[in-house]
Fold:
Amino acid sequence: MKTMIMAFAATILLSFGAYVVLSNMGFSSADVQSAPSVRLD
Amino acid sequence: MNLKVIGAALIALLTFAVTPSYANEATEARASTGGAQTLEDILARQKGVEVDDSFRRENLGRPEGAQPTSGALGTLGGVSDAEVYRGIRYSEVDIKVSNNSHAASILVQDGGMNWLLTREQDIRSYAGFGIGGIIVALVAFYFFRGRMTIEGGPSGETIERFKAFERFGHWCLAGSFIMLAITGLLLLFGRAVVIPVFGHQANAAIANFSIWVHNNIAWVFMLSLVAIFFMWVRHNIPNKMDWQWLKEGGGIIGNGHPHAKKFNAGQKIIFWMTIVLGASVSLSGLSLLFPFEMPMFAKTFALINSVVGAGLPEVLLPHEEMQYAHLWHAIVAITMIIAIVAHIYIGSVGMEGAFDAMGSGQVDLEWARQHHDLWVEEEQAKARGSSPTGQPIGQAGK
Structure:
């Protein structure tokens, strides 16, 4: 059971990691598809 | 009095001195815009300066004064509004948009209606009846057949079925899949179920949460799918023994337990279903994660046509690519959910001792002998330092 809980914790951590990495790399649809004239923030 | 007169005279002088100058500049600038108002006109109006707008005010009902149809600001000439809309409808006009995506210049795409109806009717029905059906069937099976127990009871002695890294990989895949399934179903049934019961605001919050979880946990699913493949593929190569196992229904038909190594035929089916459908759902998922950047259905349809001549469309608009990816993603995912519900049943309440394999990793030796007898022999032989036939390792088969 300890391994199962560790795997679930790793899953949550990796998900947040994926979000941070992809966001910082500008992979969101808004970033990829907007022209320079569009203000996103 | 003198001061007032002098002040009025100065104002009048300045007015006459400035206005003609502005008027001349504005008139000259308008020549470059084809008679339209200029930036100077707009700025002057914003500053409250009186602007001579007669060039616009009087420019009415004078078609001969219009720009030629070939001009940058020209009229559409004899083209009717209906023709313009037809041009937009069939993407036959040159549409310029400020969006970077080439898909944004397609303003009307009628395939969207088919996608919407298929999603709202066929896909939801498949999900509802498929997942509901397997749950009902398993509950009925449980009451009819009962829990599969260890014949003769547990031996009390255990054997390690899966190592920690195997269980870790399994639970990463399982945990991510369950979250993907729940959030995917919430997105699929949000409008049909969540809104009528909990309202629009609740659905908005749930959908927002679901899409975030779905998009980010998907990476864990894909990583652990690759890990699972390399970890277990060598144990899942089909062989003759699997056919015998299937003929006996894994022990349900007839007496006794069919022979099996580490994975029996049922588990091999689940393994290959997970790998093949998991790869397919991952590819369509990536296509959805990066809209319009990974079109794959036109090429897939062309390949299918070349093999079986199915007559599938080989030229697809960017939106159609996304719609096919979306529908395929749902169809494959629902098929996986149906199979995994059965897998969860047999690995938990359906069979005594099965959960221990992925829980602690230690299974009862008698359970292992009944369901994976050849694997037990292999493991015990390894422990003895000999082959399953009793010969020392290295001399087996000589």
